[in-house]
Amino acid sequence: MSDQSFHTEAPRRFLFLDAGARPDGNTVQLARLAAESSLPVGAEQRWLRLADHPLPPFQDLRHAGGGSYPEPEGHERTLLEATLAATDLVFVAPLYWYTLPTPAKLYLDHWVGWLRVPGLDFRARTAGATLWGVTVLAGRDGAADPLAGTLRLTAEYMGMRWGGLLLGNGSRPGDVLHDERALVAAKSFFAG
Fold first, then answer.
1. Scanning 63, 64, 131, 180, which has its CA 20 to 30 A from the CA of 173?
2. Residue range(s) defining the domain that contains residue 161
3. Does residue 55 sit within a domain?
4. Contact at 8 Å (CB) between 150 and 161?
5. Phi, psi (5° rounding) for residue 179?
6. Phi and psi of 62, rounded to 5°?
7. C-beta of residue 146 within 8 angstroms of C-beta of residue 104
8. 83 located within any domain
9. Which of left, alpha, beta for 97 (phi over 0: left; psi -120 to 50: alpha)?
């Protein structure tokens, strides 16, 4: 009898970061539909609402003292650990003034510090993960280009894969559920 070893791939771990100002808003509804419809079999999912994990204002210490940052604590630590555990990072971010909502931008600003925490190796540990975006806007699709660009360039800078942007249209709560194009796209979004 020969000794065979079987390689089983670890399940993907999706971290959904809800950056909206409205609980269960259109963007969350669209992201949940995509998760229910198109996550790979066996994938794990974790949802964190950034409003429930408020971060302090970011302080740029890159050129002060040694340029290193202290170990994150509190909500920042929670978000850091969740980010490092994820194979797939999904920004669930409604379009506000053509870009990311403040909580999502602040979370990304803290990455500047995480890149400089001694021994953390944040970039190396997140490289190869996939970064996704889900957004809903009220208006024309091109208005989301700055948001998509921010996320795509972040992925590129960090050595991550860019999974793409799922875009829906709606303003009042529940409007996105009438956007047929978005609903169809959601059903295969994470499968690609």
1. 131
2. 13-191
3. yes
4. no
5. -90, 90
6. -55, -35
7. no
8. yes
9. left
- Residuewise pLDDT in 10s, the chain (192 residues): 444 555 567 899 999 999 999 999 999 999 999 999 999 999 999 999 999 999 999 998 888 877 789 999 999 999 999 999 999 999 999 999 999 999 999 999 999 999 999 999 999 999 999 999 999 999 877 899 999 999 999 999 999 999 999 999 999 999 999 999 999 999 999 996
**Cα dihedral sign, 156-115-57-74:** positive
Q: Which single residue is written with the structure tokens 């500047």?
A: 112
**CATH classification of the domain holding 30:** 3.40.50.360
Structure tokens at 30: 């669209």
Overall domain count for the chain: 1
Q: Which long-range contacts (CB under 8 A, 24 or more apart) does 67-70 make?
A: 67/116, 68/116, 68/117, 68/118, 69/113, 69/114, 69/116, 69/117, 70/117
From residue 108, give the alpha-carbon distance in Å to each of 1, 79, 161: 53, 11, 16
| Two structure tokens written together for 22 | 């409205």
- Do 27 and 46 meet the contact criterion of CB atoms below 8 Å apart? no
- Structure token digits, residue 117: 């925490």
Give one DSSP letter per residue of 18-63, joined into a string. E--SSTT-HHHHHHHHHHHHHSPTT-EEEEEEGGGSPPPPP---TT
Q: Is residue 5 part of a domain?
A: no
